[in-house]
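assembly run, all chains below
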Amino acid sequence: MSEIPFSLTWLIPLPPLLAFALIVLFTNPDKKLSARVAIFGVAVSWVLGWWIVLSSVVIPHFGEHAFRLAVHWLPAASSVLTVGVIVDPVTAGMLFMVPFVCLMIFIYSVGYMTFPGHLPQSLNVDGLDPRYSRFFAYISLFAFGMLGLVIAENLLMLFIFWEVMGLCSYLLIGFWFEKPSAYKAGLKAFITTRVGDTIMLAGMVLLYAQSGSLAFADIFSPGNLERLATTTVNVPLFGPTPWATVLAIMIFFGAIGKSAQFPLHVWLPDAMEGPTPVSALIHAATMVSAGVYLMIRMFPLVQAVEHGPALTFIAFIGAFTALFAASIAVAQNDIKRVLAYSTISQLGYMFAALGIGAYVAAVFHLLVHSFFKSLLFLGAGSVIHAMEHGHHATAEHGDAQEGSFDPNDMRNMGGLFRKMPITALTFIAGGLALSGFPIVTAGFWSKDEILADAWINGHSIVFWTLAFAAFLTAFYTGRQIFLVFFGTPRTSAAHHVGESVRSMTYPLIVLAIFAVVGGWVGIPEGFPGLGHILNNPFHHFIASQAEALGIEAAVLPFNPAPVSISILAALGGLALAWTVYGVQPVESRDAPDPLERPLGGLYRVLQNKYYIDEFYAATVIRFTIWLSHLFSRVDRDWIIDPLVNWVGRSGRRLATGLRRLVDEPIIDGLVNGVGSATNASGAFLRLIQTGRVQNYLVVMLLTALMLLALYTTPGS
Amino acid sequence: MSFPILTLITFVPLLGAILCLLPWGQWLGWSKAREEDFIRLLAILFSLVPLILAVFLWLAYDKAAGGFQFEEMAAWIPALGVSYHIGVDGLSVPLVFLTTLLTTLGLYYSSHVIKHRVREFFVLFLLLEMGMLGVFVSLDFVLFYVFWEIGLVPMYFLIGIWGHEEDRPQYSAIKFFLYTLVGSVAMLLAILGVYFDTGTFDIVKAIALKPFAANPMLAGLAFWGFFLAFAIKMPVWPFHTWLPDAHTAAPTAGSVILAGVLLKLGAYGLIRINLPVFPTAAKTWAPLMIALGVISIVYGALVCMAQTDLKRLIAYSSVSHMGYVMLGVGAAAFAIGMKRAGALDSAAMALNGAALQMFNHGIITGGLFFLVGVIYERAHTRELNLFGGLSAKVPYYYGLMMVTALASLGLPGLAGFWSEFFVFRGAFDLVRVWAAIGVIGVVITAAYILWRIVQSVFLGQYDPQKIAHWTNPADGNMTHEPMDVLLFEKVTLWPLIFFMILFGVYPTPILDFFNRMTMALMHGL
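ok done. output:
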């Protein structure tokens, strides 16, 4: 095979990094130039990426001779860690999607980051966001992180890029940091994913210790996997467990955090506080896809123990999250929040697919989902942007509603189809793909493959859970479309909206095309009529890698039952949405949601996201803060420092005591005693030393007389 | 005898200090201001000499050969067998470089902000440098002890004289001095014990002779003598409370040196003396070391979250971060004598992590203290609740702080990550449960850095009511809004940021030193 494009793979992430550095260091005073630098950077990555994709798809059985390049990076005890790149079918798939979707989002941002209606007018000098350049720098860094991640040759590199993205999500979610809700959401995203990342880090270092290397090629060597699957470790409560199981689950926790699976999903809905292009980046092209990509990458380890608990665990978390998040999405009123929960739910699909061993289907759904979800977010952004404009226009006319206006709230919209047809049509295309509208949309084919796999391999619980989730997905997507685009405008802001600028609508059109035709590369061969037109090239491309890694990826026989159920779920959900929201559109923004009465208390529970945020706030967060204050008091006021001071004071007291009891009375007393004795004798002697000669003469006379008397006394 | 490079590195600062003491103004008829400028310049120039020599040392040290190099040996007190024996190995070379770098940066920064008793400040700072460098190059216990004590005195005065009145500088200085002195006494006893057992004060010989090998009781006591001194200096929980006070009270450059280098003396001593001289005792007490390390990590991080004074918060973060060093050393000690395949590798990596953490913490926390100084010079407060929204006002400062803070929380791609990675790589293999508790600290660290520091200082809406008067540090005039970083502040921080990024992306240049040293060390036990 031709080595040239592959040996250039390592260049792919660099242009966005360079763009980041250029903007931060030099071009940031010039906003337009910064945007161009960023777009140019990612465009170069896109060209390089697609060159590599095109070079790899023409190689038959590419998965068996994947490209790998590694050089010495740093010493680690008696071994070395390497840095390098791999290109295999999964990487190629990601390289097809990531830089392209990023490019679309970057172009879209040029239009979106204008008119910062949420900020004070004083900051709005040139019609561009005051931190326009900074925005493009951050999203460039984000693209760098994701591009680096998908070509990483070892788990350590992957982890590094993983965390770079964590940082970018923090910076971008909290981009409008004047708003407390924005910076809090950024912090929440970072800390929540950090919880998962920490467990993943622990799993990674343990894997390193057990395998002696972190390069994927070494970890997945059959001998190593065999050893990991057979040697056990004692896990508290569970007893001896194979290393492979423990490590796979620990690493999966990283994905739980990054891909917002239950119970670490709480950050993703809040992440829509960031500018909408960021939501598109996080939800589609980068961040959350990284978690699924990680598990696809680590899949040989996950399935090293056949039908092991790791697979079951992943399938369970995935399927549960798919249904759980879909149910929440039903009762949300924020246009982006609905999409956020749909992302969580769709990622659950992918993990469930991996958990049941549907490797190719997971990859397929990951890629397809990225296209239609970025489309949906950008479409939602177009709507929000238009609503802000509309609100601004009404405010100028002086007929604005009282109170704060939320441009994201679907209750404020309605009837937007006529006012912004391109946005509406593309959004509907994305929505149909999300709900799995049969035959024409890409989402149908990718979702169907997962369901078919579950059905045929007998994972009935997973199948029915996912099928029900699919029904809910179709329902809430329909609800969203009817609430936003149909009926009549419910506020004056919605009356005044207009179509967005071309830099925003063109990416929508391009992505809409992919959201429809993207699925055709993966039509199962057995599908009546359509299957033999393209022969499912996607499956064969990815399957070649699966086979090289020893993963089961046979073409499944066509079975009409799961397909029919899938079609039924999609159409049924859409039809129900039409009966509830389409036939009788909601008339006023204050009218209760038609679901509110039939669902009763359940509706409130759903609307409040099962109170999980409140639960975390009341338990983990509160406990940690309480503990931190406790320890702080222990340190400074209660135990440790008082003890130190007590020792110090005791020393001083001892010294004072010694002075009073020993030094002063005894030692000093002795010394002073000698002194005063001398004094006293001196004083006494002074009496004699009068200085008068007469006295001395008297004494002399007396003495002489006494001596005389002594000597003259007889008998002495 | 070859070129006495280590002697020069150690004693050029002393020469500088002496020259700074001379009454130049009187001799040359200069005004006081001119004389002070001259002293500033002189001090910086004299700190540059060891820095340049340290760079040379870095390049000239033969890593392949390993062991102690550039050794110098001369009789000092022959009657007692005390000699002037100095030399460096893979552990000390980077630390010598760190010391000279931080000293030069500290002097440079201080030359702009220290306005009173200038001469004394610079003289003491140079003396401090000599003491610290002496510890890192000494290969004789007595010499080691003497330098150890020399370092104490200038720092005492730096805290006591240049501290801010509201931070109780006298109390903090005394606390720092006495606390360290307690450790020193224990160390002196242990040194005498080693001497009576082996008849030598030479560290290299003591490593070979393994004093008290036959008497675990005495070996344990001697081990503890050293350990206490080093644990207080690091500091490890529960001997750490001198640190927040000393840091808070010390002038900016003093805090930088305190966190950047003085704490490393303790960690250095553990690896230089405790592990190789008393391997058996180290193995015995390894669980305790690990426990203290883990407690320091988690406890220190939690206490950080409750602080409202920026400087005190960063001081506590040092307790947490030095806990990683203790955990790494403890894990390595735990592996002594283990026969299992891979245990030695894990031990070496844990030690690598500990050694890297010493260097990284030096540049990162050094940087953080400089940054605290930058904001304090403007706001005259460090109260976190008074800040907010500064990201929009001082973007350059925000950028510098972000890089440093992220390095401190161990973000991959910046230096701090590697130390944590290697410590946990070793610890998770050797002492799984303790490592699992310690790793919680990683999450809490992210919380206090992003929540307490970044969010309180930079995010939200800027409120001009909170701090009405800002100072322009260049001329001392009042301003209504905070000024962004000035050139001298940038110049101070650039080298540190450079190393955070360089060793974050490509740590091999420094890791190679540590890796060879730790492999040799662990093989020798």
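The first helix of chain B runs from residue 5 to 21.

Chain B is about 75% helix and 5% strand.

not gonna interpret more than that til we talk
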